[in-house]
Amino acid sequence: MKKIVLASGSPRRKQLLEWAEVDFDIIVVATHESFPEGLTTTQAAIHIARQKALAVQACATYRRYDQHVPVLAADTIVVCEGKIIGKPADRDDAIRILHLLSGKKHEVITGVAIINGKEEKTFADITEVWFHELTHEQIVFYTDRYKPYDKAGAYAIQEWIGVVGIARINGDFYNVMGLPVSRVVREMGI
Fold first, then answer.
1. What would the pLDDT profile of 24-46 be if each residue is shown by its tens digit?
2. Residues forming beta bridges with residue 5, ordered by sequence position
3. Could you tell me if 180 and 125 are in contact, meaning their C-beta atoms sit under 8 angstroms apart?
4. Three-class HEC string of 143-164
């Protein structure tokens, strides 16, 4: 397998690539997770992922690699009722977000960018997720125990709330974790 560079500090993306037995190093460059107005939610996720990949490709650490080592970046957003739900600012915001998702369907969109020299591949994967109606006590328990402040939509599907709170999904489970890893492996030819 060829080596790649993962442009993400996400422990979940790291774990998924390890499970897929992909040879990778991690380089993270801080980037703004913003996007121009007028983009669709799918385009926004791809735009942010592409900015992360380009930032890594331009950094001095990456320049030490053979320039044929691809950079993989991803950005996951949650969309409920047509609005992008970001990462919670704090405990109260996490509780508010989970109340919003309770009993409803939302979409998890992961934008992916693979840049190898001047070659670029971008795509997005969408998974629909339906939550059961959650009680306030369940939401507070999850928030206080798991502190989901670094997660889009204020939850992780592989944690307690995913086990007891999700009624069903339509799409790639691993996309909800943060990376549609089987599609990434196919797209990269590894």
1. 999 999 998 888 899 999 999 99
2. 25, 71
3. yes
4. HHHHCCCCCHHHCCCCCHHHHH
Report the SS3 class of residue 34. coil
Residue 177 φ then ψ, to 5°: -70, -20
Containing 5, the helix (H) or strand (E) segment is: strand 4-6
The alpha carbon of 175 is separated from its chain's Cα centroid by a whole number of angstroms, namely 7
User: Is 24 in contact with 10 (CB distance < 8 Å)?
Assistant: no
State both tokens at 121. Answer: 């591949």
Counting Cα atoms < 13 Å in the Cβ hemisphere of 144 gives: 6
First to last CA, the chain: 6
The 8-class DSSP code of residue 65 comes to S
C-alpha pair distances (Å), 83 with each of 33, 41, 79, 96, 122 = 16, 9, 5, 14, 22
Rounded CA separation 121/72 (Å): 10
The pair of structure tokens assigned to 164 is: 């007891």
Is the model's pLDDT at 1 over the cut of 80? no
Three-state secondary-structure class, residue 126: strand
**Does the pTM of the predicted model rise above 0.85?**
yes
Ranges of H-type helices in 64-172:
91-101, 136-146, 160-165
Instruction: Give the C-alpha separation, 114 to 87, whole Å.
Output: 24
Active site residues per annotation: 75
Tokens coding 52: 């992360």
Q: How many CB atoms lie within 10 A of CB 32?
A: 8
